[in-house]
Amino acid sequence: MTTATLKFDYGTIATGANESFPYKLPRLPYDYDTLEVAIDAETMKVHHTKHHQAYTDKFNAALEKHTDLHGKHITELLANPDSLPEEIRGAVRNNGGGYFNHALFWPLLTGKSSGQPTGELAEAIKRDFGSFEAFKEKFSTAAATLFGSGWAWLVSDDGGKLSVVQTANQDTPLVTGHKPVVGLDVWEHAYYLRYQNRRPEYIESFFKVINWEQAGRNFKA
Ligand code: MN3
C-alpha cells in the first residue's frame, strides 16, 4: 500500500472549518443574499445549512469510533483512501470529500468579484491555457459536460502547472495529487431552484462571483 504525500499546502478553507476531527460547519464569509447576481439566497441557505451540515455530520459519524484517525489532517484522509479501514472508506470519500469541497467553495465566492485573476495566477493561466478566455471556455465545458453530480476544478500540480479537471460526486482533486485552486459545485442542489436544467447559465453566472483573490491565495499556498 502506497501513501501519497501532498507536496503543497491545499489552500484556504472557510473560517470555522476544521482540519481534523471533530469537524464543524464553517461560517460563510458573506450573507446568503450576497451572491444574488448568480446564486439566490434560498439556494445558498439550503446548500450551507442542510447539505454541508449533512456531510459534516456523516463525516464525524464515520470517524467517531476510529480514534486513531482523529488526529489526522483532512487532506491526509482524503488523499489516501487506501489507507482507511474499508468499512468507512466510502463514507470518508463521500462525506469527508463533501465537507472539504464545500469548505473550499464558500470563500471562492464573493459579491465583489474582480472578474478576472491578477498577479501570478493570471500569468499562470495565460501560460497554461493561452488566455483567460481560453481557460474560461475549458472550465465551462468541463462543468457543463460533467455527467451527473460532481465538480469542475482549476487545479495546480506540485510544479505549479494548471489544468482543468472534473471529479465525480464529492471526490476531491487531492486523490490525484492536485491542489484545488477554483472549484465549482455542479450538483443540482447548487443551482436547481433558480436554473432548473439550465446548468450552462449557472456556470456563466458563477464567473460573476468568483473570488479571484482567494483563488490566487489557493494557487500560492
Ligand atoms: Mn454542494
CATH class placement of the largest domain: Alpha Beta
Task: For the largest sheet, list the strands in their spatial order.
Answer: 2-1-3
What is the tally of beta strands? 3
List the bound ligands: manganese (III) ion
CATH topology of the largest domain: minor pseudopilin epsh fold
Q: So, the CATH homologous superfamily of the largest domain?
A: Iron/manganese superoxide dismutase, C-terminal domain
CATH architecture of the largest domain: 3-Layer(bab) Sandwich
| Succession of helices and strands | HHHHHEEEHHH
Based on CA inertia axes, which overall geometry fits? globular
Number of domains: 2
List the total number of helices. Answer: 8
Summarize model confidence as the mean pLDDT.
Answer: 95
Radius of gyration: 17 Å
Biggest sheet layout? 3 strands, antiparallel
Strand content: 5-15%
- Based on secondary structure, the structural category is mainly alpha
Brief sketch in words of this structure:
The protein has eight helices and three strands. The chain has 221 residues and is mainly alpha-helical. The protein has a three-stranded antiparallel beta sheet, with helices on both faces.
Notes on the protein architecture:
- The protein is mainly alpha-helical and 221 residues long.
- The chain has 2 domains: 3-22 and 40-108, Orthogonal Bundle (Helix Hairpins), CATH 1.10.287; 119-220, Iron/manganese superoxide dismutase, C-terminal domain (minor pseudopilin epsh fold), CATH 3.55.40.
- Helix content is 43%, strand content 10%.
- It contains 8 helices and 3 strands, in the order H-H-H-H-H-E-E-E-H-H-H.
- It has a 3-stranded antiparallel sheet, with helices on both faces.
- Helix 4 crosses helix 8 (212-220).
- The longest helix is centred in the N-terminal third of the chain and has 23 residues, at 41-63.
- It is globular and about 50 Å long.
- Manganese (III) ion binds next to helix 1.
